[in-house]
């Protein structure tokens, strides 16, 4: 028999605070309520859901350099028989500095997700680092170097990890601020690691490699 799902959501805003003061910005909000769903052959079910969202950002600006960094936490928990809990964490930042004919930049983005129920869990972690170095060699000729690093870890029944580090090198010719021509090369080293559970064994696979190619 085909099942029909009907869901109804109702949330009550508990609190919301937001402040921007000079170089600091923060925000906290929360929700609490219930959601009801019905299945054609299993009746109606009502469960409570709570959410929290906390955000903080710090900023600094001046003539020669500027930076910012932010953090955010978003947990959720469901008050039902299965005790489902979900949490998301974010953080990112950037730094830029200019001096004469050169400029330097660094940035990062980090994320972590967790989802768990009794007897089951899913986890995801990610980190990305970026850099850039630009140099004006002449009024019509620029050089740019952009290194990067990427990491990801996904864990459920099996596990997969990715590590990659590389750099993008380019020579750039601008055309009156409306277009540009560029040519360069991308170099990257990577590793992929799989861990598979086949009871009673754990099987590991690892792949490593190097790639390169043109960059335009």
Question: Could you walk me through the main structural features you see in this protein, from its secondary elements to its overall organization?
Answer:
This protein is mostly beta strands and 216 residues long. The protein has one domain (60-215). Helices cover 0% and strands 85% of the residues. It is built from no helices and 11 strands. Strands 1-2-3-4-5-6-7-8-9-10-11 form an 11-stranded antiparallel β-sheet, with no helix packed on it. A hairpin with a 2-residue loop joins strand 10 (179-198) and strand 11 (201-215). It is flat. Mean pLDDT is 81; it is low at 1-14.
Keywords:
11-stranded antiparallel sheet, 11 strands, disordered N terminus, mainly beta, 216 residues
Structural class, from helix and strand content?
Answer: mainly beta
User: Going across the major beta sheet, what is the strand order?
Assistant: 1-2-3-4-5-6-7-8-9-10-11
Count of alpha and pi helical runs: 0
Rg, rounded, reads: 24 Å
Number of domains: 1
**Largest sheet data:** 11 strands, antiparallel
Through-space gap between termini = 57 Å
Order of helices and strands: EEEEEEEEEEE
Topology:
Elements: E1 5-21, E2 24-39, E3 43-61, E4 65-79, E5 85-99, E6 102-117, E7 120-138, E8 141-155, E9 159-175, E10 179-198, E11 201-215
Antiparallel strand pairs: 1-2, 2-3, 3-4, 4-5, 5-6, 6-7, 7-8, 8-9, 9-10, 10-11
């Amino acid at each position: 028999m085909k099942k029909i799902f009907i869901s109804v959501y109702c949330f009550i805003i508990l609190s919301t605070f937001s402040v921007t003061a000079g170089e600091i910005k923060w925000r906290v909000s929360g929700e609490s309520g219930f959601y009801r769903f019905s299945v054609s052959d299993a009746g109606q079910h009502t469960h409570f859901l709570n959410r929290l969202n906390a955000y903080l950002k710090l900023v600094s600006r001046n003539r020669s350099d500027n930076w910012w960094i932010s953090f955010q936490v978003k947990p959720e928990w469901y008050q039902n028989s299965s005790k489902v809990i979900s949490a998301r964490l974010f953080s990112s930042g950037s730094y830029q500095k200019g001096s004469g004919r050169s400029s330097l930049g660094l940035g990062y983005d980090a994320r972590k997700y967790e989802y768990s129920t009794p007897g089951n869990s899913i986890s995801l972690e990610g980190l990305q680092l970026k850099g850039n170095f630009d140099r004006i060699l002449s009024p019509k000729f620029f050089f740019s170097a952009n290194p990067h690093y990427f990491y990801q870890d996904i864990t459920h029944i099996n596990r997969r990890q990715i590590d990659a580090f590389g750099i993008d090198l380019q020579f750039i010719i601008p055309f009156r601020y409306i277009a540009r021509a560029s040519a360069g090369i991308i170099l990257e080293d990577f590793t992929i690691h799989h861990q598979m559970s086949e009871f009673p064994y754990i099987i590991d696979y690892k792949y490593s490699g190097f790639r390169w190619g043109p960059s335009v």
